[in-house]
Amino acid sequence: MSPSGLTSRPASIVEAPAADCGLCPRLSAFREGNRARHPTFHNAPVPSFGSLDAWLLIVGLAPGLKGANQTGRPFTGDFAGDLLYDTLLTFGLAEGSYGRSSDDGLRLVGCRITNAVRCVPPENKPVGAEIKTCGQYLKADIAAMANLRVILSLGLISHGAVLSARGLAKSARRFGHGAVHQLPGKLTLVDSYHCSRYNTNTRRLTPEMFAAVFSEIKALADIK
Ligand code: SF4
For residue range 84-118, what is the model confidence (pLDDT) as tens digits? Predict the structure, then answer.
């Protein structure tokens, strides 16, 4: 492993954190505890899912303890994934069927999914230093996607992490559900409320609102 915590990979593969990445002491300590409490879980940084050739990158917050941290695939295993993958299937951005498991055979079409923070945080709340530290992996993912045209940020923290990864100020581009931001490099950033159980239970985000965001994204793809 390099001093930065990056594993050595061929140039064609984006660099990813090692399974025992220790750059965030609080998260690596939580990981160790989870390995004892839940020995069958993934309990490691969750890698991005989908091809680097994709035109759309979906960026969430962080793995859920009994979602991605359990299954090892972003948004897989908990409620947020139910809504996200159902929506991707509806819009032709995934093929197969979603089975809450990383071996369900689901295939993404033209999109890739990652998280701003790759390790599960206590109470689903990463702190600023962890978001900043893990941002190097988000930056590497974005840089490796030659065909990337649209980034969908799920929530305020994702929005900020994407802007930081691109070296852009947050003050000029405020988060708002459905907001569309033009970024340098022919890249468009689209915001949505996160598809968490809390947001859907409180009707802050309805499936219809989420679908409308994907309609906008598909329209953006068509005119590019
Ligand atoms: S959150 Fe990212 S930087 Fe922090 S320990 Fe996990 S993989 Fe490493």
Answer: 999 999 999 999 999 999 999 999 999 999 999 99
Ligand 1 centroid from CA 20, angstroms = 9
Taking the C-alpha atoms of residue 97 and residue 89, their distance in angstroms, rounded to an integer, is 8
Rounded to an integer, what distance in angstroms lies between the CA atom of residue 147 and that of residue 101?
Answer: 28
Specify the higher pLDDT residue, 221 or 55.
55
Compute CA 148 distance to the chain's CA centroid, rounded to the nearest angstrom: 15
Ligand 1 near 94 CB (within 6 A): no
175/170 Cα distance (integer angstroms): 9
Asked if residue 106 has its Cβ within 6 Å of ligand 1, the reply is no
> How many whole angstroms from 67 Cα to the centroid of ligand 1?
17
Pocket of ligand 1 contains residue 28 by CB under 6 Å: yes
Distance CA 107, CA 102 (A): 10
Quote the CA–CA distance of 122 and 182 in Å, as a whole number.
Answer: 34
28-37: pLDDT as tens digits: 999 999 999 9
Q: What was the pLDDT predicted at 13?
A: 60
Phi, psi (degrees; rounded to nearest 5) at 152 = -105, 115
Provide the 3-class DSSP secondary structure of residue 113: strand
Distance 119 CA to ligand 1 centre (A): 6
How many angstroms is it from 216 CA to the middle of ligand 1?
A: 32
| 3-class secondary-structure state, position 220 | helix
* Gap between the Cα atoms of 144 and 171, Å rounded: 26
Q: Decide if 95 contacts 50 (C-beta within 8 A).
A: no
